[in-house]
């Protein structure tokens, strides 16, 4: 094992169980313990901070940018030998597109690959982590091509992405990542 990601989308309440507060500081309590255990086993294994779900504040989630800032306020900046896991999903928007439009799936910076990359890097830079690598541990474009019927109402944007968009945008996202300094692996 060369790398371990500590958790997945900890800013979603459905991923959270227990009594530790549901916020970035609560995640850092768990990350601190995991980091110490991993480092006791291996001084060189890559430790990846759990990738956040790109979302705003809802009953089931904390805005990913807010959650990341909470993590920094709780000590994330003290770690120099880690990578930041990110999930820069882009709904029905091309990877180089930036916010905002009026269609409902393009009216929020959370819905844009490019905005997600830029905003995460900015928050990292503000907290002295400009050199830290970002690992894209989830990304991609969903399509409804080949499925019968219609997607649920909140997933109608999938009708705007065909299989060719999905393939081409994935390739372009890899190209964007390869051009960025401090970009780690992209899954």
Q: Your description of this structure?
A:
The protein has a 5-stranded parallel sheet, with helices on one face. Helix content is about 30%, strand content about 10%. The protein starts with a strand and ends with a strand. The protein is an alpha/beta fold. The protein has helices at about 25-40, 65-75, 115-125, 165-180, and strands at about 5, 45-50, 80-85, 135, 185. Helix 1 packs across helix 2 (about 65-75).
Q: Helix count, per DSSP?
A: 4
User: What's the shape?
Assistant: globular
Overall pLDDT: 95
Tell me the span between the first and last alpha carbons.
Answer: 16 Å
Q: What is the helix fraction of residues, given as a range? A: 25-40%
- Biggest sheet, spatial arrangement of strands: 1-2-3-4-5
Rg, nearest Å: 17 Å
Q: Mind summarizing the main beta sheet?
A: 5 strands, parallel
H and E string: EHEHEHEHE
Structural class call reads alpha/beta
Percent in strands: 5-15%
Low-confidence stretches: none
What is the count of β-strands?
A: 5
What layout of secondary structure does this protein have?
Layout: E1 3-6, H1 24-41, E2 46-52, H2 64-73, E3 82-86, H3 113-126, E4 134-136, H4 163-179, E5 183-186
Parallel strand pairs: 1-2, 2-3, 3-4, 4-5
